[in-house]
Specification:
single chain; 210 residues; alpha/beta; Rossmann fold; Arc Repressor Mutant, subunit A; 10 helices; 6 strands; WalR-like; DNA-binding
Length: 210
């Protein structure tokens, strides 16, 4: 089945272009669109997509507020923020709110589709260009950046997680069950003192694991 996606951006032309790019190879279906954050929440509730792609700057209720509202749901969809190079502060805030993906609007179509598929599978997606700009600005990002407490297997899991791999993909790579990988991921997050996979991936990038 195709990954079901809702797009949120106040520029209709951009939404139309993204829809064409995402649906080109049949792996993704755009099931809804929104022009602001308030509309996005309603559209997501109506369609229950696998992934939401949301711009941060929209009139009325902006993307960050929409992310905050969606993340309060018991089972929220995977959320990726679409941004541009001059919006690093917004990305940092979205990270704190629990967004699982950070993508640039000028990403290559293949990379964008792959990111959406990975998000739907439970992965964390960071465009390398965003990562490079974001890390120096995360002064308030408090985490245990020492990996000394991680076992060899936990470091393997962290490295794969930092590459955006889902639990299923990590399990296949390491010949483990998904339940075992889920347990490893939980332990890695706890030992690093982070709240989610994206923050763990940032730690991995900071210390040079990935």
């Amino acid at each position: 089945m195709a990954v079901r996606v809702v797009l949120a951006d106040d520029e209709a032309l951009l939404r139309r272009g993204l829809k064409v790019l995402l649906e080109a190879d049949g792996r993704v279906e755009v099931v809804g669109e929104a022009a602001d954050g308030a509309e996005l929440v309603d559209v997501v509730l109506a369609h229950l997509p696998d992934v939401v792609l949301v711009d941060v700057q929209m009139p009325g209720v902006d993307g960050l507020e929409a992310v905050r509202r969606l993340r309060t749901w018991a089972t929220p969809p995977a959320i990726a923020v679409l941004t541009t190079f001059d919006l690093d502060d917004y990305v940092a805030t979205a990270l704190d709110l629990g967004a699982q993906g950070f993508l640039l609007k000028d990403a290559e179509p293949e990379a964008l589709v792959r990111a959406v598929v990975d998000l739907a599978a439970g992965g964390a997606v960071l465009d390398p260009r965003i990562t490079a700009r974001l890390l120096p600005r995360l002064r308030g990002f408090r985490a245990n950046r020492s990996l000394d407490s991680l076992s060899a297997r936990e470091r393997q899991v962290l490295e794969l997680l930092a590459g955006g791999r889902s639990n299923h993909s990590i399990a296949d790579e390491l010949c483990l069950s998904e339940a075992t990988v889920k347990s490893y991921v939980s332990t890695v997050l706890t030992k690093l003192g982070v709240e989610n996979r994206v923050q763990a991936a940032l730690v991995a990038h900071q210390v040079g694991v990935w």
